[in-house]
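Hi W.,

Here's what went into the run:
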Amino acid sequence: MDLLHWFIPWEESPTLVVLISAVAFLYSRGCARNKPEFRRKAAFWIGLASIYLASHTQLDYYAEHQFFIHRLQHVVLHHLGPFLIVLSRPLPLLASGMPEKWGEIFAAAGRWRPAALAARVLWNPFVAVALFAGLIAFWLLPPIHFIAMIDWRLYRFMNWSVIASGLLFWGLVLNRHSLFSINLSPWARIAMMLAVVPPQIVLGAIIFFSSRELYTVYTICGRAIGGLSAIGDQQIGGIILWIHGAMMSMAGILIVVRRELVSEKLLATRLPG
Amino acid sequence: MAVARPVFLLAAILRNPGAIELSKNGLQTDYERTASRCEQMIRVQAFRIRRYICGMIMAFLVSGCSSHRDWHVDEVAGHLPDLEFILTADDGNATTAKAYGGYVLLMYFGFTGCKAECPVSMARLAHVMQLLGDSADRVRILFVTLDPEHDAPPVLHRYIAQFDPERTVGLTGSAGDIQSLTKRYRAAYRPRSGVGNTRINHGDAVYIFDSQGHARLLATSSHPDEDVAEDIRRLLKSGI
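Here's what came out:
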């Protein structure tokens, strides 16, 4: 099978293409003006590319028809992609890549009271944690999962919702912030990353240890990979959910500790020796 | 409750964003005018997004209420698109979904080389037709092949003769035609995987359409034949 065939989108989404190319265009303009470090650029491009590749190639066919691949797709869309994008702190670069008119629009949007209030509600630490973990649980409720996999509109809405929730959550916890005047201490942000771990472990364990088929939609519509039983597929999916949640939170915590809690003095004394 | 305050505030804003807007005085600078125009645009967009989200929530509520109470098999009304295809029937003639208007349709994806699931499912459908008695004349079974290279119209014709030949139509076409139909109904089909004809993966679903071609129900091998027949009878009663 030729390699290029894999890059043909399984289901075309013009919204995704337009949004990703707009972001890529603004970012490269911002890069040309500001010359950021290579590390930041690499994190941003890998994050953006992973979101595109996970949702707009032939991989999407397998995600629609195999539970554990669906879970892997969500690891990328909910965790890895947004995590890397946020890690690169792209907002100043995107803003500098923008035409001035757009900047005004965004500034107006930021001043618009409901937007500011919505941001304050969404970025309330408790709401953010509940939203991030709750969304995973919501889309995994068996009846909801069934119609989300059957109805292409809900399927897209599901994937967009996890990308948005990933950007919101990691955007709040990974970096020191002054957007919408929200300031959380590093300790609060570490606590938030720890708080989303248990729900994911519990959900993953419930799915892994379930002896009956929870997500019948894959049997009904057919699985992409032969030779793997329904329960086997479900167990791999459960394990992925179980492990990756904790994994990404640990990575986030290490980054916050390294960036903000280890004092510069300590680093300076340890590096030469 | 102090905890619930942000939620109430948000709900109030969603209902009436005008109420907390700042009052604008007569004197406006150019900059303020641009800003207020932008705000106007954003407000219109926000309204559309709100309407979309409300619609989504309504769809969830409606589907949550109706799916498991009324029908024996899974209800998918509104979630799957109407039936549409251009394929070749087992008599060798080109045919479209319109040709079966007025019939309740039971669509099944399979292939003649399939030894395990397909004969069982087709025999079950034939049994359902028997249970329906005279009403079965207003029902048609569509057997869509997932192996169009092998299943030419004569092969299909011979195959369906084993089950309910008068009321079953075998359908074939190019791999592309079959793929666009399976994709439309989210059925697994991968013509390029090239693992060999005996290892075609396929689902367990019987897609049930009403006489107007709207997708209504999904029956699987876990549903008893009597339940499927009862639901079809109900569709026939309501669907004219």
